[in-house]
Specification:
358 residues; mainly beta; four-stranded antiparallel β-sheet
Amino acid sequence: MNKKALILLFSMIALVTGGLVTAGLIVTSEEEARPVFTGEYSLGPNDELAYVIERKGVHTLFVQMGDGHPAPVYQAEEEWEIHAPVFTGETEITFVETTGEPKEPPGKQEFQLVHSDVKTATVENGETTTVLDARGYITELLYDDAKDRLIVNGVHMSTEKKPEVGFIPYESALYILSRDGDVEKIRSFDAYSPGSLQITKEGEHLFMILPDDFEEVTPESMFEATERIYEMKIDDLSALQVVSKEDSDIPISEFVLVGDGTQMLYQTIMNWGEGGTYMYDTVWFDRSTKKEGKRLHINEAVMNAKLNEEGSWLYYVKMSQKADQTRQYGLYRFDVTGEKKEEKLNIEERIQEGEASS
């Protein structure tokens, strides 16, 4: 091959390679610019939706009223995350802005170095106020509508300006947070953090999921404990009462109260003890008889379940993994009346449609 041919060949290779690199960069840039649901959402009294979207590493809180387009309400600072949004009024939403869970492996995490702020934003204009400026990792907010206050679930939460130094054994606690920022600890837990918090309409009883060794945790007991549903009276913290079946060793991973709380929907494992891959489903449970009822036949593990005000739609999140092992989340709802089945709420597409039409 002569010199001119070689020059032409290498020029064509360089051109094709450059084109492929440019195309790859364009695809990567487009993927980074797409809105991605983080799995954090809230449900309003009239089925309004609030959810958190990540785009190019930045978290933004959106609110969707009825059939309207989603509207941005608050954008987090860079490298901060938005967690646990909850409607605290018809046109108001409260959420946690945090530096996130410590990156160290379990047993070495220094949660006291995390910052977590509780903020309230007005839906119409995005006006934001800081209710609480705290250290520690706040994992969940629950709104007590009857008493207009928040129940806060946090790990090593503190309002001290300077953190404690060094590793501190894991401890979570539940707090009452008033609108003026006053904080009152109501119960702490060693080694565990209560999950799936629910509150009765009169604001007197809390329900939560905890492993049944939460009062006397040992390394051995943690491998044998069963996750159950407990009830706690906020004004009487002397004991937590088991609500789910005490004679069952099948763990419960998610639940919602239905109506006055005598009925529940909870997620359990349908093939417990049979070996193989666990098969999850959500079933009805009657507290008075301690008996399970019909399955919903969702037939998958779900998280962050919420029942709408009318008790007709059960909302939840499904998590899956992409080929690169990154997590992806989808928001769904299920008609518990039986008239319809499962629907996926394509919130990322709704955001893109709204941006295209504006």
